[in-house]
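Tip: read the tokens left to right.
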């Protein structure tokens, strides 16, 4: 049995459910512990009665230590603060042999069993960002990404997990400061700080816009997606993709941030994922008819909101990682 945990609120509900469904499609023997970060998501998830999931409310999960720092963190920062605590909660409350945290915006194309097989008898599994040399943000964002991280319920695993939990409660902010950034710069020295740490080697685990330019998508047949590593010309199969920073606006506008992927990545990965999200939206509507995928809005009430709007307008004007979904779908139909 593979035990996973994740956290999300109603804004990320469709992504979290898509991730759950992708595990159902690829992994026979798993259970997902979902930490619902608002009442709306908690209510909907319970109504859906997911067979391989346990839904946990904030009321049951939040400790006094977490509540003490909650008001000092933004919504995103508090989620990062809680990541390590969700893993520890699952291991301690449900007495499982191991637990893997997965970001809600991952999507699995292949059984992650091969990633655990690679881990072997180690106690901790971490994944690198694998930034390309010209876009290497390891110094500020971290060598490793928290997206998919495993802890075994043994001496080495629990020592590292409790250390990380305490560190995140003490400091976890969306800025680089004194060698720290969020919850993930803490992982930089784990291969020497802790025993039993394995760094994932399989390139199919951890694909994302920040590293995809190093690989060429050469074939997609259903969920079998083959890439070529442009560095050494070797082929590998996608296990999961991290659909980070996808923002939906009105009029079918999609913003993918500052990375500009090849068109084949948009057509063969992002468009099918968007269709999955829309199917999930309809699925949610069977229990909550008024539900819609939330659209991103710019709140022009502070300098940060104005800065984000100006960034968005810049990308629209220069056609930089901003796309019209309807146009892309029509283009894909012609191919």
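Filled-in amino acids:
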């Amino acid at each position: 049995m593979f035990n996973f945990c994740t956290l999300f609120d109603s804004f990320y509900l469709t992504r979290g459910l898509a991730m759950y469904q992708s595990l159902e499609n690829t992994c026979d023997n798993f259970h997902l512990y979902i930490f619902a970060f608002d009442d709306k998501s908690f209510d909907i998830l319970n109504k859906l009665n997911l067979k391989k999931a346990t839904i946990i409310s904030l009321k049951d999960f939040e400790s006094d230590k977490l509540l003490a720092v909650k008001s000092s963190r933004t919504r995103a920062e508090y989620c990062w603060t809680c990541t390590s605590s969700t893993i520890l909660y699952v291991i301690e409350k449900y007495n499982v042999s191991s637990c893997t945290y997965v970001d809600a915006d991952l999507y699995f194309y292949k059984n992650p069993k091969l990633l655990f097989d690679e881990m072997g008898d180690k106690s901790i599994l971490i994944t690198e960002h694998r930034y390309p040399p010209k876009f290497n943000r390891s110094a500020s964002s971290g060598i490793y990404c928290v997206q998919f991280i495993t802890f075994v319920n043994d001496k080495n695993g629990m020592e590292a997990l409790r250390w990380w939990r305490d560190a995140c409660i003490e400091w976890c902010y969306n800025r680089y400061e004194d060698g720290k950034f969020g919850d993930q710069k803490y992982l930089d020295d784990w291969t020497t700080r802790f025993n039993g740490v394995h760094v994932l080697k399989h390139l199919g685990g951890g694909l994302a816009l920040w590293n995809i330019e190093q690989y060429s998508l050469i074939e997609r047949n259903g969920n079998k997606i083959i890439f070529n590593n442009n560095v050494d010309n070797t082929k590998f199969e996608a296990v999961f993709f991290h659909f980070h920073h996808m923002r939906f606006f009105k009029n079918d506008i999609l913003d993918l941030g500052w990375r500009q992927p090849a068109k084949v990545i948009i057509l063969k990965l992002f468009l099918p994922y968007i269709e999955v999200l829309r199917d999930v939206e309809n699925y949610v509507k069977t229990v909550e008819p008024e539900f819609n995928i939330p659209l991103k809005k710019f709140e022009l009430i502070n300098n940060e909101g104005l800065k984000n709007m100006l960034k968005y307008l810049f990308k629209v004007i220069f056609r930089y990682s901003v796309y019209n979904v309807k146009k892309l779908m029509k283009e894909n139909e012609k191919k």
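The radius of gyration is 20 Å. The chain has two domains: 2-205, 245-335.
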